[in-house]
Amino acid sequence: MWCSSIEVIHTYFKVSERLSQPGVAIGLAWTPLGGEIMFVEASRMDGEGQLTLTGQLGNVMKESAHLAISWLRSNAKKYHLTNASGSFDLLENTDIHLHFPAGAVTKDGPSAGVTIATCLASLFSGRLVRSDVAMTGEITLRGLVLPVGGIKDKVLAAHRAGLKRVIIPQRNDKDLEEIPANVRQDLSFITASCLDEVLNAAFDGGFTVKTRPGLLNSKL
Active-site positions, per UniProt (predicted)? Predict the structure, then answer.
């Protein structure tokens, strides 16, 4: 599909509007018709630690969501992520709802892992994800980022949407050779081997570890 520069600008502003509050991130998906950008939305509410997933998700994608929340819970103190009551136990008295719009379309596969983790990090930190960034990558329970397929089509989808930064797994670096030169020139690529690197690239100013005040003044 061909897009004029005016169409790209309009598309980007629509994308930017959807990332105007914490708990939203943009992923990249592959379909038989090509790549697509994919929004992930999260909200939290008082509850009993339940995770609700909506948007016609397959089992692999559901597992990615559980991996993401488990990794964030184990790293909550490191990044000073808290629930609404200030607890580092993100699911304490808290329910989470993750939604993948375009609910009539079935979605599956592991490549949304980095997007889900970023979306939840945004929700629990209260920080906005950059509105010009999209990402793809499988995650492990230890926060490693694993390679995925369809990189060329996914990057082209990000370019069509007017985005400027694309985060991909480090082990997919060789796939960038398939991207047309004019597209590569318009985009900034971040290759990540772990979720720490993904988060640093997805937020303005990075997503740094929070050091406890007492450690700053400690002496050996």
Answer: 111, 154
**How confident is the model at residue 4, as a pLDDT?**
36
Hey, what amino acid is at 47? G
Calpha distance 34→220 (Å, rounded) = 57
What would the DSSP string read from start to end of 53-107? EESSB-HHHHHHHHHHHHHHHHTHHHHT---TTS-SSTTTTEEEEEE-S-TTS-B
Domains of the chain as residue ranges with CATH = 5-204 (3.30.230.10)
Catalytic residues: 111, 154
What parts of the chain have a pLDDT lower than 50?
Answer: 1-13, 212-220
Report whether 57 contacts 104 (CB < 8 A).
Answer: no
- The pTM score is 0.88
Rounded to the nearest angstrom, the gap between the alpha carbon of residue 88 and the centroid of all alpha carbons in its chain is 21
Question: N- to C-terminal Cα distance for the chain?
Answer: 62
| pLDDT at position 210 | 61
